[in-house]
Amino acid sequence: MSEIASIQQRISQIEELQSELKITKEMLKAELDNDPEYHQAAEDAKAAVAKKKQFKDTIYNTPANQKMVATIKENTEELKTLQEILSAELYRHYEANKTDEVTGADGSTRKFKVSVKLLPKYGSSGYSRVEF
Question: Is 48 buried (19+), middle (13-18) or exposed (0-12) by CB count in 10 A?
């Protein structure tokens, strides 16, 4: 079997299994939705979550905590940016050196994983749309 035929067969198997999984999940969800005890428990949980959010918002909105919330948000955004840059750098390192290891500033060797993911179909051509 050729490589492309093998890929096409694997994609078909994955799509078929995803379809079966979706149907089974929908059936199970319908069972939950039809159970009055589950429905009541879900409503109680929703009320508890709303109450918890109200307390959390009150605590977060105090002047002392607003600064910490802003710091966390800024650091999280910076961390995400640094991780994206590192991912690109590691991929370039992998392409250039054909290795999944890199030596850190402290001299320790660290492994990294290169990952490929098939995107969902897009449009009539069947090609996936990639946005930057």
Answer: exposed
Helix axes 63-97, 36-60, angle to 10 degrees: 100
Going residue by residue through the chain, which has 132 residues, state the pLDDT in tens, using 9 for 90 and above: 788 888 899 999 999 999 999 999 999 999 999 999 999 999 999 999 999 999 999 999 999 999 999 999 999 999 999 999 999 999 999 999 999 999 999 999 999 999 988 888 876 555 555 554
110 near 101, Cβ under 8 Å? yes
The answer to whether the pTM exceeds 0.70 is: no
Torsion of CA 38, 39, 44, 50, to 10 degrees: 120
Query: What is the 3-state composition of the chain as percent helix, strand, coil, each rounded to the nearest 5?
Result: 70, 5, 25
Q: Please count the CA atoms within 13 angstroms of the CA of 116 that sit on its side-chain side.
A: 1
Which residues is 111 bridged to in the sheet? 101
